[in-house]
């Protein structure tokens, strides 16, 4: 059997320690190389990602600045500013009302007008009673508002002024000093809008011939009948009727007058009958002085 001496044992231990240190050193170097290789491989990818983010930010900034520049030019250029408004297919007074209702101002941005287009058209229809529809058209930096009006069925008298009555039963927003037309004049309806709407609805049920035969319509309510009306006809007769039954009974008027031997009154309140004027009261229908006016000629 062989036994090491103490000196030899110590030498063996030293050699083993040196080998262990050398092995640890090699392992550390190997790990260091591996880390360096890892970062070398990753660095290009990191640089590429950074460059992509940088490019995206640059493109976004360019887009923002481009939009701001274009928007500034749009709002600054004279070609994008409103310089004229024209209103078509209506009279002078209505044109003024339409322009006022549109709230358009000289040299305002046409872009802003585009965004308010529908609102402007609706406001005109709501504020101007005679307007049935309004359509805004663009031509360069000019605007044309095409107006379509409600048909006129007559005129309402108030304080010796006359207001157009539309098929809706509403009155025009302005008054005329005189009228010159075949439409009837409606009296005492100005402050009775509900009764006027009822009367206009009944009037429109009449045939064109009967409509043209009426000269005046007077609202004359009584304690017994709040719908009583009196009509002065162009043929010299008078008609007394009730608003709610006016159209249904007025259709008998031609037959009734054909059987009358002289001018008189046709009573349609209850039933339908006629009687002549007393001789001392025999008269022609009242006539309103109708002379052409500037506003009428422009209609």
From TrEMBL:
The chain crosses the membrane at residues 59-77. Residues 275-299 are annotated as: Disordered. It comes from the Bacteria. Keywords: Cell cycle, Cell division, Cell membrane, Membrane, Transmembrane, Transmembrane helix. One of its GO terms (biological process) is FtsZ-dependent cytokinesis. The keyword Cell division applies. InterPro entries: Cell_div_FtsQ/DivIB_C, DivIB, FtsQ_DivIB. GO terms for cellular component: cell division site; plasma membrane. Its main location: membrane. Residues 155-268 form the Cell division protein FtsQ/DivIB C-terminal domain. It is a single-pass type II membrane protein. Belongs to the FtsQ/DivIB family. DivIB subfamily. This is Cell division protein DivIB. It comes from Ligilactobacillus ceti DSM 22408. The gene is divIB.
């Amino acid at each position: 059997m062989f036994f090491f001496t103490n000196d030899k044992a110590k030498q063996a231990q030293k050699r083993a320690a040196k080998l262990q240190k050398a092995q640890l050193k090699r392992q550390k170097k190997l790990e260091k190389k591996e880390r360096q290789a890892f970062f070398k491989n990753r660095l290009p990818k990191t640089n590429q990602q950074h460059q992509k983010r940088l490019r995206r930010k640059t493109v976004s900034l360019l887009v923002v600045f481009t939009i701001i520049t274009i928007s500034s030019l749009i709002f600054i250029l004279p070609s994008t500013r409103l310089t004229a408004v024209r209103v078509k297919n209506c009279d002078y007074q209505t044109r003024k009302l339409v322009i006022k209702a549109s709230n358009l101002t000289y040299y305002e941005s046409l872009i802003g007008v585009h965004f308010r287009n529908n609102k402007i058209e609706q406001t005109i229809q709501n504020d101007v009673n005679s307007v049935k529809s309004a359509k805004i058209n663009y031509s360069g930096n000019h605007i044309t508002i095409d107006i379509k009006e409600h048909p006129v069925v007559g005129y309402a008298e108030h304080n010796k002024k006359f207001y157009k009555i539309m098929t809706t039963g509403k009155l025009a927003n302005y008054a005329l000093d005189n009228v010159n037309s075949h439409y009837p004049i409606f009296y005492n309806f100005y402050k009775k809008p509900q009764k006027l709407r009822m009367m206009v609805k009944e009037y429109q049920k009449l045939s064109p011939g009967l409509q043209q035969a009426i000269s005046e319509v007077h609202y004359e309510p009584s304690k017994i009948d709040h719908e009583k009306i009196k009509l002065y006809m162009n043929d010299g007769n008078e008609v007394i009727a009730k608003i709610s039954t006016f159209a249904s009974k007025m259709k008998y008027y031609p037959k009734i007058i054909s059987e009358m031997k002289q001018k008189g009154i046709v009573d349609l309140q209850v039933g339908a009958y006629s009687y002549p004027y007393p001789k001392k009261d025999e008269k022609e229908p009242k006539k309103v002085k109708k002379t052409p006016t500037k506003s009428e000629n422009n209609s």
